Structures are given as structure tokens and as C-alpha cells.
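Retro notes
What went well: the complex prediction finally ran end to end.
Inputs used:
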Amino acid sequence: MNKNAMMCAQRVLFLVLIVLPVKSLLAWEVSGYSGIESLGFWEQSLENQQQSHYLSGVIEAEFYHEWNDGRDSLVFVPFFRGSEHDDKRTHFDIRELNWVTVADLWELRVGIRKEFWGVTESQHLIDIINQTDCVENSDTEDKLGQPMINLALIDPQGGTLDLFLLTGFREAVFPGVQGRLRFSPRVNTEQAHYDSKGVERHLAVAARYVRSVDQWDFALSFFHGTSRAPRFLRAKDYNGDDQFTAYYEQINQAGVELQFTEGNWLWKLESIVREGQGQTYFAGTGGLEYTWFNVFSGGADFGVLVEYMYDSRGFNAPVFYQDDIMAGFRLTLNDVQSSELLAGMVIDRRRRTQSYSIEASRRLGDSWKMALELRVLTQVAESDFSYSLRKDDQLRFELSYHF
Amino acid sequence: MIKQLLLIALFWVFSNAATAIEAINPRGLEIVTEVDRRDTGFGDVQMDMVMILRNKSGDESLRSLSMKTLEVVGDGDKSLTIFDRPRDIKGTAFLSFTHPLTADEQWLYLPALKRVKRISSSNKSGPFLGSEYAFEDLTSFEIPKFSYRFLREESYQERSCFVLEFIPQYPYSGYTREQVWIDSERYIPVKVDYYDRKNALLKTLIYQGYQQYLKQFWRADEMVMTNHQTGKSTELINKNYQFQQGLGGRDFDRNTLKRAR
């Protein structure tokens, strides 16, 4: 009897030992969202292939698995958007596929990842690790997954030094002929040019030291490799029609980020010096954010934001903002449905080009969310980088389900 | 001249009233110091939380999150809060370093942008995740954040209690005062009445299902916050308490914030 019980226990133990690793392999945590989007334009398009309304669908899932008490983890995030009319906007991307291992004084992160740098709100000057997903949303906040080896060295006193080896350059994808929010003439994505080849084109190195001391948060960063944002060259396609081609150059960029947090105030500054794209230039964004919390004891937060954007290349800079002021406000209701509203305007100090945007979102029930975005551009000067977008005022509505 | 002096003297008396009360009536501070002493030495603790938000008509909305806290001797505690539900904010994480006298340091991690954002810690009175809990109700307790007044002893739910008045000494609080019932045997809070800026009764918090961990630390399984002015309430259920799992400073830094779940 006793012997039987022993054997039984042994068998159970044996089974548990076999099943445990298998079970842990299967223990992937899945989350993500899926949504439909309506993107509408009410002005007559510049070119007649362009449409006035685009319906699209999106799905992004995250598969996550951890072991060793969370000191090792794997994450896989595939993304897909399918859009009417614009075949370039229909795109698949692996946003993340990486392994992270954690020790007391360091973390190693290997694979496809997304890494954000910066503190300001109006634009993200310093953020350079990932290529922008230029067909996803014109706010340029969406990024393509970047293959990398990232070693973080952690000082127990508070600072972190991140070292990056970026393995594989990713070209920007621009909207197709039938798409809106594109340059006119279009950018021919099949014909990008580079000033470098092979390993040099595909490998980049970067480093960033970030630290917080009392009310100050600061970071210093450096990047060497192929620029994520290209310059655009005018050319002719084989039909003799005008087109732009993207020209990617080797650059060096040094950056500084600074934030001072005091009471209801946030003071922010980020600035870069970059060489390799023509003349060495300097650019900066600085400003403040002030928030009134729990306004009239109603629970809502109301914040105002003002930022100034500068680029030393002036009118010739291939960027939207080079001497522009952004002013806006953020209303967060802090209600059960997490209702939020962000409204802002940007005005070019010299050329008077103005852009306005409103973004609002609200949860419906527990799992649904709706978002509305309105973007309007007025008095666009011919010399402005955004001149091609002057007829692309848009209203975007998205309904998504989160799981 | 004498009138002016008198005014200055009066002003001085009023501005020091809180301290004066403590000097005359030190029992409040003594009790709170004992509460704090008995809860010292937990080291670190982690737990899962479920919040059930109810409005006047009884509609419910659910939040689930987990929280890790590290006791810091000689300074305020560090805490990391990770959101799991609703799903659209899954992965959002909130890191807070509390300080007894200076402003707290707080960072928010936004998973969609992979962005760590330093945020203002002046948001004390605003609602946490749309619930009836304000940020200040959920931050770690530090003695210098209030001044104390002993009011009376009375029994509450068949337990003898000290009734104390807590007056927030930190800026941006949404309360003029809190009335706190402290179990005089176990030295733990069992009920709190919150009075708003107009000194009207705003909310009541009731602690239920206290359990003792490691033969020392009392934690409530359930905390119900009722807002008397709106009729809304939030039930907070605390589960899976784990003490002294060996957490350290590294579990409360920017790098951990980015992969917290």
C-alpha cells in the first residue's frame, strides 16, 4: 500500500515535471486591438487619382511570454492595416519581436523593437531610432519596428546608459498615387537613393544617457548612421513625369533633452545638432505645459501647452516646422469612460501657414473605444514644406475593440 | 502701533494654530506615531487590485491593476502601479517616489508610444482612473503630511476606536480635514470621513476584512469609498498580498517601468 502510494506520487511528480515546461511554453499572454477607420477629406484633391474617402481596418496583437520570474521575456507584436484605394497604406509590419533579459546592473534587449526618445509634445526632434510609419497617421507618432541589440547599463544611483547597435535600415513608405496626405508630385518609393552602401547603410550606432535628479529629468544622446528622415530630390520617372525621390544620407546627431517639473508646471526643451545632410544644422523645441487639476472639484484636468520650434536651415529645411509656435490645450475628464480632448494650433511665424488639430477619444463600455481627429491647414505658403497637403484637411474616425 | 502688534500677534497665533493644537494635545500625534511604528518593517509588498466603480443607478465598471511598494527607511515609499483593465490602458504604468516633506516624483509609462513621461505630482485631489479614490487617498502614508488632533474615543462596529482629525499639510489637497477612526487595539484605520474644501462631508471610506500578514502587518481585503455628494461608490478589492519578496530599487526604476506588467 505504502509502496503503491510512493509509486503514484513518483508518477505524478514525473508528469508534473514534463507538463510544467510545456505549459509554460503555452502560457502566452495575448492582448491587442482591432478597429475600423473612416478617413475623409472634404476638399477637392490636388490630383485626380486621389479619393475623398478611405475606409480601412486595422489589427495589432501582442503575444507575451515571460519566465525566470519575469527576468526573461519574449514579445511579438504583428500589425496590419488594410485600406481602400491606397495600396501603400495597406501594410503589414512586425512592430516588435524581441527577447529581453534583465540583471541587476544591466538589461539586454535583442530583436525588433520600438524605442522613444524625447520630452516635447509638438514634434519629436530627437526621436530617431525607429523609422516613422508615414502611411499610418499624419501625426507621425506611429513607428516601424527596428531590429537592434540594445544593452542598458544601469547605475544603481539612478542613471541609465543605453547602447544601441541598429541592424538593418528601414526605408520610409509613403502614400501611393491614390492616397491623400502625400507629396505632389508623389515620392517614388521604388527609387530611394543613398550616399552609402552595404554595411554602412544598414548599420547604425546610438547611445543615450538618461537620468532624473530631483525636479530635473535629462538625457544626452548620440546617433551615427543612415538618417531616418530623408531629403527629397526632384526627378523624372520613366514616363517623363515629375516625381520626388528620397535621398538618405549618413548623419551624426547629438541631442539633449531637459524637463523641469515644478508644481503644476512642466518646462521642456529638446535640441539637436546634425551633420551629414548638407550644412550642419541646429534645431530645437522648447516650451511649457501648465495643468489645473480637478477643476471646480469636478474631477477634470485642464492643461495649456505652448512650444516654439526652430530649425537653423530656415525656409530650406525639409521639415514642417522651422520657426513655428504651437499653442494648445488638453482636457481630461477623468470620468469612467476616460474622455479626452486635445486641441492645438501651429502658426509659422514668418510665412503665416497655420494648422489646427483636434483629437478626442472616449471609451464605450469596457472594451470599445472611439477616437476622432480633425486636422485643418490654412494659408499655406508656396515655400512651405506642407504646401502639397494644402487640400488635405481631414476628419478621421476610428472605432476599436481592445482585447 | 499696539493695534498693529496685536494684529501681528493674532496672525501668528492663527498661523501656528495647527502646531499649537499638537503642542496642547499631543495624543493625536502619539497615536499616529504608534500606527506608523507598528506598520514599519514590511520591506516590500505586492498585490493585485480590482476596482468596481458604481454610479447612482448601479451601473458597474471594472478596473484591474497590480501594485508593488518598497519601504524606504528615512524617506517616503516607492510604488509601481500597473494597469491591466480596461484593455485600452493595459500596460500603462505609474511610478511614484513619495517624500514626506518635498514634492513626490512621478512618471507615467505610455505603452503605445513606448514613452516614459515625468508628470506633475500636484494632482492630489483628482480622481484615480475615474473612481471615487483621489490620488491622495492612494499614496503612501507619511506622518509629516498631516497635523493631528485627538477628538474622542468611541466604539465603532463593536471595537473601541480613537477618533482623530487629520489636517493635510501638503499643498493641493482636496480636503480641509479627514476624520479617522483607528482601532485602539490593533492600531489600524477602520473608517475615514473626508471633508471637502468647503468643509462639507464628501466621502466615507470603510475598511473591511482585515488580515494579518507575517504576524504583524494588517491589510484590508476590501475598501469601500462612497461619495455622499454624487451617490457614486468604488469598491476596492485587494488580493494576493505578497510580503518581502526581495524587491529593491531596481524594481522601481525607469527601465522596469517600461516592461512592467
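What we learned: Helices of chain A lie at 2-26, 198-202.
What to try next: split runs per interface for comparison.
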